[in-house]
Amino acid sequence: MPISEFDLIRRFLQHATAQREDVVLGIGDDCALLDMPPGRQLAVSMDTLVEGRHFVPGADPAALGHKALAVNLSDLAAMGAEPAWATLSLTLPGPDSAWLESFVAGFSALAAIHNLQLVGGDTTRGPLSITVQVHGFVAADSALRRDGACPGDGIYISGTIGDAALALGLMQSRPKTPVPEALRLRLDRPTPRTMLGRLLAGKASAAIDVSDGLVADLGHVCTSSGVAARIEVGQIPVSASAEGYLEQLGWRPVLAGGDDYELLFCVPGDVEADVVTSCREGGHRVTLIGSVEVGAGVSLVYPDGRVSRETPAGFDHFMDT
Asked: Among 5, 143, 248, 293, which residue is least crowded by beta carbons within 10 Å?
């Protein structure tokens, strides 16, 4: 039996997430009505995932629901913001109830972890694409930004880097060979580091999430802050699952691969020890991988001592095909 657009919204989306007290009016009217807590700023971000560009046709809808929200939550994490609300716009080839139920399950499970409520959006017919906008709160003057790094700051990364790029590369080059589950999970179900971001708010001098590649995203910080960076490549943390591939593939997946959604952040020397201790006591794996310097651009120091300013390019929607 065909399902209408409004039946779709009522059945799958109106109650997809838990209700928050600061949502005066959610899905079901022309606008949502939302209460802002006093003394806090609103952080807003939006990302779109397009079939054939960001995910393969036939991708698991539950994983898509998770990732569509996760990549946006990662932007809030990079600003040190606490997640609050989201809107969702779905362009669907048709009203597939089984697909929608699975997609919403993946979306809702992650939303529950972060106490986030879906408060609005849109649905329409067309080639499959998913757009999520998230809203979060951060104390005034405490937001993490890209433009605060200073010479002498230590450069840190959370978690491990390169897993998602390796998973994608293996899927594309060896389509009939199973990808190690640990790598595939990092690609399909990334973990947004929101708690780490909130811990770093007001302490780190600059931050960004690694979505388009470590070197490319660090380059954004350098450009915004008017500084240079020096990275010790051998100190970049990689997972046990990824280590076996580095000898075959080299450092490119680690340096230029996207989709890790780890936090890259800079810490002034006078608070560095305290910040690192707080991170580790909070259960967050963080690793020192370099330092901020006077100048411009990113220099790479390889394990054999070679220094290079030739850095691999990260992902660009309008340059990569």
From this structure: 248
